[in-house]
Amino acid sequence: MATLVGRMQFPAGPTPVAVRGGELFDLSAAGTVSELLNLWPDVPEGVALGPLDAFAIDEAPLLAPIDLQCIKAAGVTFAVSAVERVIEERARGDARLAETIRGGLQDRVGADIRAVVPGSEAAARLKDALIADGLWSQYLEVAIGPDAEIFTKAPVLSAVGHGAQIGIRSDSAWNNPEPEVVMVVDRQGRALGATLGNDVNLRDFEGRSALLLGKAKDNNASCALGPFIRMFDRDFTIDDVRKAQVDLVIDGPDGFRLDGHSSMDQISRDPLELVRQARSEHQYPDGFVLFCGTLFAPTQDRDVPGQGFTHKAGDMVRIASARLGALENEVTTSAAAAPWTFGIADLLRNLDARAIRLRASDCQPVA
C-alpha cells in the first residue's frame, strides 16, 4: 500500500499530511513538508482524519506537496526534446517554420542521439560530426555532452497543486505543457520519493533566445506539482521511476483533444545521475525537487496546418502515471491566475500563530 505525503489548505493554514493505507493523517506537528522529509522516517504519527476518499477536498484543497524545498528542473533529457529545442532555436520562436526544420533535423540526428550515452566517446564523435555539418547547437551540448542542463524552475512556495489553475504568459503565442516525473530529495541528498509535475514551457520565448529561459519558465502559476509525493518503500522504488510511463491528456474548450505519452525508460540520463549533478558543489538544507524532463513534444496542429500545438485558456491538462496518481489543472494566463501572495515570511508567521515549532534536526548534508 502506498505511503503518500502532501499538503492541504486547512482553515488554520497549509498543513503537511500523509496517506497510509488509504487513511489521511494531519502531520501539522512536523511544521513543514521540508522538515518532515529531512527527518524521514522518524516522523510524527499524526492525527487520523479518516479515509482520504471521504475527505472533502473542496473544503481543504490540495496544495503543491512541497513547501520550503528549492524547485529545480533538468532540461533536454530526452532525444525528442533535444531535437525540438534545436527546432525552436533555428525557427527563432516562429511556429510556422518548425515543420520544415523538424524533418531535416530528425533525418540527420534523431537516431544518432538515441544511440549514444551522454558524455561518452561516441557522443564526442557525434558532436564533432554535427559541428562539421554546421548542425551543432547549445541544446545538443546538454543532450549528449557530460553536463546536464539543471536550472531553477520556480521560487520556494510558488508552485500550485492539483486542481489549481496553471498559468501561461499572456504574451506567448507558442507554448505547451511538459508532463514530468519529479524527484523529491532531502537535505542529505537522499532521493525519498517522486511526484508528478507540469513544467510549463513557452516555446516562442525560449526559441528566440536561450537567455529568455527564466522568462519562459518562471511566471505566476507556471509550475504545478502533485497530487502527492509517493515515498520510496518496498513497493515503490527508484526502478519504478525508471520505467514509469507518464500520460498526458489535454481537453480544450474548442473541442480539441490531445493525447501524449512520455516513457521514462527513454531518458538519456538516469534520474539519480540528474540528482547527483543538481547537488554537485551545491547544498540544499531544506531539500529540493527536480523535474526530470519530458519525452513529450506536441507537434499536432491545433488551428493552422504547420503551426503545431499551443495552449488556449480553458484547456484542461491531465498528467497521470499509474503509480503516482493524476495531476489536473486548468490553463489560464499568468496574469489572470490567482496571484502568489503566501511567501516564506507568511508561512513562518502562520506556524508561530499555531504554536508549531520545527524540530531541531541533527541531519547534516553529505558530501
Percentage of residues assigned to helices: 10-25%
The whole-angstrom Rg is 21 Å
Count helical runs.
10
Mean pLDDT, to the nearest integer, reads: 89
The amount of beta strand, in percent, is: 25-35%
CATH topology of the largest domain: Fumarylacetoacetate hydrolase, domain 2
Query: Would you identify the CATH H-level superfamily of the largest domain?
Result: Fumarylacetoacetase-like, C-terminal domain
Number of strands: 18
Q: Do you know the CATH architecture of the largest domain?
A: Alpha-Beta Complex
Write the H/E string, N to C: EEEHEEEHHHHEEEEEEHHEHEEHEEEH
Quickly give the structural class: alpha+beta
Tell me the quaternary state: single chain
Number of separate domains:
2
CATH C-level name of the largest domain: Alpha Beta
Protein name: Fumarylacetoacetate hydrolase family protein
Domain Fumarylacetoacetase-like C-terminal: 147-331
Organism: Novosphingobium flavum
InterPro entries: FAH, Fumarylacetoacetase-like_C, Fumarylacetoacetase_C_sf
Quick summary:
One of its GO terms (biological process) is small molecule metabolic process. The protein has helices spanning 33-38, 79-91, 98-114, 121-132, 138-144, 203-208, 213-217, 238-242, 271-279, 344-353; strands at 3-10, 13-20, 23-26, 47-51, 62-63, 70-75, 149-154, 165-168, 175-176, 179-185, 191-199, 201-202, 223-231, 245-251, 257-263, 288-291, 316-321, 325-333.
